[in-house]
Amino acid sequence: MRIAVPRKPIRPPRERVNTNTKIRAKEVRLIGPDGQQVGILPTHQALETAGEYGLDLVEISPNADPPVCKIMDYGKYKYELTQKKKEAKKKQVTFQVKEIKLRPKTGEHDLNVKIGHIKKFLGRKDKVKVSVIFRGREIMLSDRGKELLEQITEETAELSTVEQTPKLEGRTMVMVLGPK
Predict the structure, then answer these.
(1) Which CATH number describes the domain made up of 97-179?
(2) Rounded mean pLDDT, 79-100
(3) Could you tell me the residue ranges of all domains in the chain?
(4) What is the DSSP-derived secondary structure letter of residue 20?
(5) Which of these, 136, 137, 119, lies nearest to 128 by C-alpha position?
């Protein structure tokens, strides 16, 4: 008999930046706090130079030969990176795919309620997947399913564009609407 052992969640690798004494290279290409190249120096001498300015020695390009290091305030650098990430996240456009399920014998009032939901989703810039599900002998009513989807397309025409036309997949007829 096996005993289930809980696993540790897999975390993405952190972006490690070597600073000050964690820099392992013998020589580094040093860039001053003003952005000017100082030249290639031994690491201990580069650390002393950074100490004179009261700043940190940060490894910017560890894969270069020799590694490129810059004299800067590391705390301020990390803060600016997080601000850039937040700004990029704000500008990102996100949307969800919402699904509305119907049956071929869905009543008129229920259909109007579902169309109201579709309009609300499209107003929030989400995509909507409309599915008509056929059970048993209802598969013979595939024409009715197509009519339902066409009616939905007509009633939401001012808010949406048809991204995927109605198509039968097994016992389900699917159509995808996207916001205009």
Answers:
(1) 3.30.110.10
(2) 87
(3) 20-77, 97-179
(4) G
(5) 119
